Amino acid sequence: MAPPLPGPLAHLAPLLDQYGYLTVGALIFVEDFGVPAPGEAILIAASVYAGAGQLNVAAVMVTAVLAAVAGDNVGYLIGRTGGRAFVHRWGRYVLLTPERFHTAERFFARHGGKVVVVARFVEGLRQANGIIAGTGGMPWRRFLMFNSLGAVLWAGVWTILGYTAGAHIGAVYDEIARYHVYVLIALGALAVAFLVRSLLRHRRGGRPSHPAPEPEPASNRPTSEPSRPAPEQGRLTPEPSRPMPEQGRPTPDVEP
Question: Which ranges of the chain have pLDDT less than 50?
Answer without folding.
Answer: 173, 254, 256
